[in-house]
């Protein structure tokens, strides 16, 4: 481990999954036959101080399961959790699970061994991977022997990813356009295989969950501060030989977003188009605007999400929780991706039930590869996939895309207005005529 930590995040439980994989889905096996199990504090999915309405929702299986019957007839046997199909298409990319690896806001972590380990393991899993917009402005873009961080991550991913799965998504914000990140990547011969196989996407970043309404922030030393000062707002507000590099968030209206998406489709016709929004109060309007303009995917980063540097006042006080974002969007018009505090199957499945096509792993992915650079993310995802299959099958579904808001219940929510009550033998009409009361006669 490198000393990376995540206060307020279930770090210990994520690291346990990175070490032990699917075994962490269940209580300790040596307690079987000794301890009596039931709901307790240890079973809670998140730190109570960080709960949002997505965490408080409960998954509620029905008693009658027509989709299970359909699956039984299809298979000729009783369905089991392994029969749940988790494969999906994420922003134009085929994926074995409704999961992708989010961009890492911390350039120091993302550009180092952890970023490379995450790239290799995401590639092995066949999961789409997003690369943050800060890597090129801070780390540069160099081809050849002394490869820049962004190319190193792309190559590590491509070398390990099956040719029919996954894809790489490269972010760029408005201010980062001066670095021509997309042009450099799109024209790079080393990325040609991804372009030719349709596994490259560009994501227009309008915001992020960690600091809605602000641009990216990175901590740099004095030398980098002088180098970046002509393109970014570099401020001396930190201690020691550290400076804060601030990017502007950009200015957007409906028409500007439409034009940006069209620009991306016209200039990079062989790349998919993703758009990322912060958890703003008009997120539903923004998402619909992007889809109708032609975006292949819209990413919503809920408040309390993020891996990068942010002012403390923003971390717990600004932006909508992820669950509220998803509820405001409702039935999505296109591929909807959700990120923010995802690390286990329960929160992931609840997000899918609220309309998300897939969920992103950010902090959880970094902690996993920091715990084990070879297998940590693989084990974490394996545990999440097992939980997802158990939960989805318990709901009587056998396709992740079949989940719906009907599978959720929130404490304090009103009961359904009407509940269908099956007829009883005492009141049911018989095929031969009117019902006769039990024990009655002429």
Automatic annotation (TrEMBL):
Top-level taxon of the source organism = Bacteria
* One of the protein's GO biological processes: glutamate biosynthetic process
List GO molecular-function terms, semicolon-separated. Answer: glutamate synthase activity
A Pfam family hit: Glu_synthase
Q: Which InterPro entries match?
A: Aldolase_TIM, Glu_synthdom
**Residues annotated as domain Glutamate synthase:** 201-369
Instruction: Give the record's family classification.
Output: Belongs to the glutamate synthase family.
> Per its record, how is this protein called by name?
Glutamate synthase conserved region-containing protein
Species lineage, top-down?
Bacteria, Bacillati, Actinomycetota, Actinomycetes, Micromonosporales
